[in-house]
Amino acid sequence: MTGKSLNHVKVVIIGAGAVGSTFGYTLMGSGLANEIILIDKDKAKAEGEAMDLSHGLPFTPPVAISAGDYPDCSEADVIVITAGASQAPGESRLDLIGRNSAICRAVMDGILEHTRNAVIIMVTNPVDVLTYDALRHSGLSWQQVFGSGTVLDTARFRYLLSKHCEVDARNVHGYILGEHGDSEVAAWSLTHLAGMQIDRYCELCACCNHRERRGRVAEEVRSSAYHLIEAKGFTNYGIGQALLRIVGAVIRDERSVLSVSSLVNGYMGINGVCLSIPCVVGRAGIVRQLLADLPEDERDGLRASAAKLKAMQDSIAP
């Protein structure tokens, strides 16, 4: 499309598998985008998904949905990358790195032939390592290229705490930091409910041994994806909603605080690693990183997560 109007919002989704198509479905009903393009190496798959989505347009806000190719990245406001091999049962996200690094670089090359202006959101796993690889390969800024990170993990954390505390999940505030994966860190020091730090809230309830319970909650968050993959083969609904939240923050310039994966330098001795910390997200991408002061146990956990990711990053050839 040429001559795009100032209020025309174009979102390109690269990868029309379970995650990409579910996000497309979530996005089409939101009213956020005027145009959604699906790109996939399997062009018939992309065309079929676009056709199926388009049949629901009488029930949604106006939006144009079509299958396309890399030239359609021109004038995109946001590009969401979900293309890649899926995580198999029993396989960690980091096990995927060898298969998905080459895909990531090919996708970035396709994008850069046609635009260097879009905000690019990496979703493909292992998302932290591939976000770093995309940044290094593209030469774009860390504010412009970032990953979905632990936005979904954080949502799972808030949901599980809401069940435990018997309150609305929207009134629980907290973050999962570090890797989107096995070394992630539950930031209990940043977790609040009704303005109270979570430990204080639980002490007032006096309904359980909350310190013992919080270990089980953190483990359930870490293992959620594995249970879902074992049960249904993939995850799609939660990440679809998480992506809508991130993309909405960009399109509407919300300056929302989200635990996206970004390049971290100089925070608690962590340098040159993409991982999740709270960030302000707006129209240009990441507006700033919020460098919270964490207690020593959470610092140690975040440093260990960074070390694990750094080793994986360094294993990828430049």
Can you put this structure into words, describing what you see?
The protein is of the alpha/beta class and 318 residues long. The protein has two domains: 10-147, Rossmann fold, CATH 3.40.50; 151-314, L-2-Hydroxyisocaproate Dehydrogenase, Chain A, domain 2. It has nine helices and 16 strands. The strands form five sheets. Strands 3-2-1-4-5-6 form a six-stranded parallel β-sheet, sandwiched between helices. A three-stranded antiparallel β-sheet has the order 7-10-11. A three-stranded antiparallel β-sheet has the order 12-15-16. The protein is globular, with a radius of gyration of 19 Å. The two termini are 34 Å apart. The model has no long low-confidence stretch (mean pLDDT 92).
Summary, kept brief:
With 318 residues, the protein is α/β, with parallel strands linked by helices. The chain is 41% helix and 19% strand.
